[in-house]
Each structure stands twice: as structure tokens, then as C-alpha cells.
């Protein structure tokens, strides 16, 4: 058993007969009344996100997890295939477990959290950013940069990302995997 002081991003807990992963949390100590922890929980079975507030000192049941490095191999419909880098064992995960499946490039290493009691994969943590090549981008129009103007571009995995007007086809860009947004252009 853990308490609210042990809450951190990525912690897996049992709550309402389901397993949830904590996405965001905020410890709040108001001037009047007891402290509490405001959290965003993502169900690892359905993928739904819910907001919940725990009072300070509330006991929560954590799930023991192990983290292993897996390499993304390929997708087949809604099924994504991964290989363990140490044992070369392959697993298949459903699309709803992944946070941003359309940004996954074949050969990318991800961290998979596995429940130690049942040996079932719980969640997949992608790298903080990923570098992808732009396969399609409309040409930018000169003089259209009074503000932070963006256009949509398609990257090699098929995902669509809003990018600045100076990005062209063939450019490599760095994308934040948490939000799916453009970070910077990568020079080689």
C-alpha cells in the first residue's frame, strides 16, 4: 500500500476494480482545510482518462511493475508488434494502450511496463521526442508570417503535424511524442 505522498507520473495503481496509470498530479495545500492531491488517471484496459482527487494521507493500492526495453517491429491493423531487446521474445499490443501510435517508427525503442503478478503489459512509454522525415507539405506562401503561421505536414509514419511555413518535403523534424507537436527542424 502506498499513500498520496508516493504519487508520481507513471505510477500504476488499482482503483475502482481497474488498473490506472497516473498521467498528471498536483499536490494542493489550500489556506483553509486539509491538503489533497488532484490527479488525472488513464485506464490501462479501456484507455479512458478521468480526473480524481485524493485527500492527503489516503491509502492507494499500487501495482508492482517491471520496465523492459522493447523494439517496435510493425503494425497489423490495430495490433502493434514489439520485441524484447534482451530475450528477443515478441509481444502484440492493442492500439489503445499506446499514447501516440501514429508517431511510432519501425525500429524505435520504447519502454514497456509489465505487471509482475500477471506478466501482462500495462503501458508503453515512448521516447520524449522522435525524429521523422516530412513526406508531404504544402509550399509556404511568402509574406504570410505576421504571426506564428503553421501548416499541416505528413510525416513518414502517416501522422499529420502542424509545422512552421519554412518546413518542406524531405526535411527531418523533431516531434514531441507526449503532445504530438512540432519541436524543431533537424539538420544533418
From TrEMBL:
GO terms for biological process: peptide biosynthetic process. Pathway: Protein biosynthesis; polypeptide chain elongation. The keyword Nucleus does not apply. GO terms for cellular component: cytosol. Belongs to the elongation factor P family. Involved in peptide bond synthesis. Stimulates efficient translation and peptide-bond synthesis on native or reconstituted 70S ribosomes in vitro. Probably functions indirectly by altering the affinity of the ribosome for aminoacyl-tRNA, thus increasing their reactivity as acceptors for peptidyl transferase. This is Elongation factor P.
Amino acid at each position: 500500500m502506498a499513500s498520496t505522498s508516493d504519487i508520481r507520473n507513471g505510477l500504476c495503481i488499482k482503483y475502482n476494480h481497474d488498473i490506472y496509470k497516473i498521467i498528471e498530479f498536483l499536490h494542493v495545500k489550500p489556506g483553509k482545510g486539509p491538503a489533497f492531491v488532484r490527479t488525472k488517471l488513464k485506464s490501462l484496459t479501456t484507455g479512458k482518462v478521468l480526473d480524481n482527487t485524493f485527500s492527503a494521507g489516503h491509502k492507494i493500492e499500487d501495482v508492482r511493475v517491471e520496465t523492459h526495453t522493447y523494439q517496435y517491429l510493425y503494425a497489423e491493423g490495430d495490433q502493434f508488434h514489439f520485441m524484447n531487446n534482451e530475450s528477443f521474445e515478441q509481444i502484440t499490443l492493442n492500439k489503445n494502450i499506446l499514447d501516440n501510435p501514429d508517431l511510432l517508427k519501425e525500429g524505435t525503442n520504447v519502454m514497456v511496463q509489465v505487471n509482475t503478478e500477471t506478466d501482462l503489459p500495462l503501458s508503453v512509454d515512448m521516447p520524449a521526442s522522435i525524429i521523422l522525415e516530412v513526406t508531404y507539405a504544402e509550399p509556404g506562401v511568402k509574406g504570410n508570417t505576421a504571426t506564428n503561421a503553421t501548416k499541416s505536414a505528413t510525416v513518414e509514419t502517416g501522422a499529420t503535424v502542424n509545422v512552421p511555413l519554412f518546413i518542406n518535403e524531405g526535411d527531418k523534424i523533431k516531434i514531441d511524442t507526449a503532445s504530438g507537436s512540432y519541436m524543431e527542424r533537424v539538420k544533418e
